[in-house]
Fold each of these.
Amino acid sequence: MLLILTNDDGIDAPGMRSLKQACRQTSVLKTNDSKVIIAAPKDHLSGCGHQVTTTQPIHVQRRSDTEYAIAGTPADCVRIAYTHICPDVKYVISGINAGGNMGADTYISGTVAAVREAAFHRVPGIAVSHYRKGKRNVDWDVAARWTAGVLTDLLKRPAEPGTFWNVNLPHLEPGDPDPDVVFCEPCTQPLPVNYRVEGDNFYYVGEYGKRDRTPGSDVDICFSGKIAVTQLRL
């Protein structure tokens, strides 16, 4: 199994190191002679959505035989990886994003856009994000362990063309028991849209943790301390 790993926080982000660690811990990958190729943005591009680069060159830095830093968006990375680096890719995994990507976030998120781009090419994918309460730090070792468990399950499931998985890890307290995994639907409530106005300048001040949450949706599940898994469709 040949996998592409990517993200929108940048190739050197701690979430990418955590995702690599998770892949090493995933039993289905250890037993299937899998190869992992990292094709991730050179810089931090959180919130870029499904933006692609078509009017300027995209520089690709080959760091090793398995690692490429690409001066483009997450969708660019998947396009370049799929067409030039490893056209026989079998799966794309994106993350682990430092911040949740639930409900309406999936249209804004570069993390999710990477696996959506893969789905257009009929390559299955999994996006993984970690909800953060306020600006508290993430325990990336714990995130890797949780992610490995979810990947072990999802990679064994049949890949339905035109769909992809979106996973959101909760932010628990140190020492809390591992969270349950809940398969659910994406929330359709809007994000908080609030601005502080100073003259002609508008500063976004919407509070992510105060968003509306439909009971049983991915936002509700993740905010309640469980791992939310949704299957999204093109």
Amino acid sequence: MLIRILLLFLVIALATPVLAQSRNVPASREQVQLSFAPLVKQVSPAVVNIYTKRTVSQRVKHPFLDDPFFGQMFGNERFGGRMRRQLESALGSGVIIEPEGLVVTNAHVIKGADEITVVLADGREFDAVLALTDEPSDLALLRVVNPGGEKLPYASLKPSESLEVGDLVLAIGNPFGVGQTVTSGIVSALARSSLNISDFNFFIQTDAAVNPGNSGGPLVSLDGGVVGINTAIYSRGGGSLGISFAIPSEMVASVVAAEKMGQSGQDGVVRPWMGVSAQKVNADIAASLGLEKPGGALIARLHPASPLKKAGLAVGDVVLTLNGKEIRDPSEMKFRMATVPLGEKAAIEAYKNGRKGQYMVTAIAPPDEPPRAETRLEGAHPLNGASIANLNPAVAVELGLRTSEEKGVVVLKVPRGSYATRVVDPGDIVLEINGKAIKNIGDAEKALRKKPAAGWSLVIRSQGRIRKLLVR
């Protein structure tokens, strides 16, 4: 027994130096003082707090409505009260990317704002005006008003492609309105697309602490470059759980370029249109096609005017890369193409007929063909008052429709109080009226001229679902 105890002490004594050697003592004063402070001093002056004000209308209930007796007698509608306008405030973050005062933030930070104030880290305040809002990407651009002729501090965009999983990053913003705050973390994942945050589900995931108020602030690499804009968190109670998402800087750069080139409108940036429906390539599909591994975007449908079709691609082909960047799924293909300037060509590598090939695809705006021919419907029928148009790619993009329908009629507007509000909503696609297929406005007007004895029979695609209605 004594021998065993002695051997145990001997093993511990021999192991102790090995454990000590795995910890390195700082070899210089500089190593002792390693810190993010120089990086923060470089970037934080360009990070701004954004305060917005907007006027909202709220119904003020009559005090009798809270009384059980009067409330039961008259109901909520009889004593509905009056409308009262009040001022709401909100806050967020942003980053100046040009010395003239161009600020990048999230679209949801400034949505509905009547007044926007930008506050710099040194306490200076400036009014700002909205230069561009692009809800599909959740990005917005602001311009500082009257900066006094001086150059403002700014940070430069850096390609997020330079990041690798595990890299250290900083998040700077104004969480909960406490003031400018810096948090650090690592890149947890790249090209995260299994979300439903914006139209372009393609994000940088980090574990840096990001909270409400951080939205619109920069995600910064260790060389001071802005690699992303913090936009969302995964949270069950509103606080940080170490899972946050940032919009890649490539998307930010494309929005800035579109604003400067005038490639934007009321609905945001005019982006390249692909005219394609695609699906992810899983292991079974990859094996059936003879691909080495799962990945890419399998073309399921192509619009006749699709630039991919004009380049030589067809249904069943698999897009593998775009401008040298690997395509892992349809979301990534959509994101990569969205960053290509209109009029330029994108190099696509695709798997077609058992072999890989190169295809040059031109970035085009969604075509407004066939002509939309917007028409307001009137008459004794269930669509009275609705405005309809011929469905084309431009109309589909404007309405946010995810459809590859080649022909049809879409509802654009439904005025309040019109009979059509009982039947359709904006964005609905009218497929049939009284058993007649509706391919254009002429078909719709013709079908609505004569009321059938049994009532109106309608087939409508609404939010991706087919509805069959009988209106008497």
